[in-house]
Amino acid sequence: MKPTQSLHDRGQSIWLDNITRELLLTGKLKRYISDLSVTGLTSNPTIFDHAIKNSTAYDEAIRTKLRQGKTGEGLFFELALEDLTLAADLFLPIWDRTDGVDGWVSLEVSPLLARDTASTLAAAKELHERGRRRNLFIKIPGTLEGLPAIEEAVFGGIPINVTLLFSADQYIAAAEAYLRGIERRIEAGLKPDIASVASVFVSRWDSAVKETAPAELSNRLGIAIAAQIYKAYRELLNSSRWLRAFNAGARPQRLLFASTGTKDPKASDVLYIRSLGAPLTINTMPEATLAAFADHGDLTAPPAPDGGDSQDVIARFVRAGVDVRALAARLQDEGTKSFVASWNELMAVISSKSASLRKAG
């Protein structure tokens, strides 16, 4: 049995953290679905920046949209929606088979809006309407300004992927925003089965402390933080408040482990996959990590519902001088800025390609 099938059978969904037009047009994504148990995918500005910059596969579509008067951000979202609706259609049989638990794709609102609640909500509504797919998540960052937009979007019936979460506190805040939206739907007599995932970034923790952590703690902080978040996740799902919502027809907001490609060349290339194989969760993997796990992956025991030894590991980092709470805030802020930088670069790529394609006729 392939390692990817073993992970799927354990109860964790395998999503691809990538999308390109080549993946769609060559049948490669379809093969990932049939051969490697891939059941969804995620995208972000960095992924689309790399996809469009490093390929000519979008050139003809860009030419067409330029003739239609489309430019800049508007042109990009048309390209992105073309890719993601094609991917959504590939995953729709999985979505149908699992009654909407799995088989999702994700599109992020402009990261320039991360600190603007009203504009984030308006963008989420617009993209949801334009996407016209039952299995399309709209990604909203779990920043302080994003939380009210998440609640309002969920209340409005929009499936949401909450992104850029780094700590248990940030995860709980995002989960409660989702639940408030669900509870308001119940009170209003609306169906409460609006899907959502909460995306926790893992490897960036280890990258942030690689120069200061003691050697014996190398590459252990990200997994420890993820284990603490998994503990909070299980506790929330078992709380009386969530159980009341489930009894009214709500569904769990699933926990998603993101940023699971290994950054340290000295560490295992499947470090964050083998250690985080918990049921009722998702691991969204970069393409290289998916291939590595399919080739030589193995699984350790899943994260313990009580967090296992994660608190002890984190305490050792604290004693080594790591301010975990401050670092979580910094990582979320840096992640937001990183996506803004990628977005600006993406817009520059769109502009440059548009100019060169116009010149070429």
List keywords for this structure.
alpha/beta; 16 helices; 8-stranded parallel β-sheet; single chain
Overview of this structure, please?
This protein has 361 residues and is α/β, with parallel strands linked by helices. Helix content is 56%, strand content 11%. It is built from 16 helices and 8 strands. It has helices at 3-10, 21-25, 28-35, 45-53, 59-67, 72-97, 117-131, 146-155, 168-187, 203-209, 221-237, 240-247, 271-274, 287-296, 310-319, 324-360; strands at 12-16, 38-41, 105-108, 136-141, 160-165, 196-201, 254-258, 281-285. An 8-stranded parallel sheet has the order 2-1-8-7-6-5-4-3. Strand 3 (105-108), helix 7 (117-131) and strand 4 (136-141) form a beta-alpha-beta unit. Helix 9 packs parallel to helix 11 (221-237). The N and C termini lie far apart (52 Å). The model has no long low-confidence stretch (mean pLDDT 96).
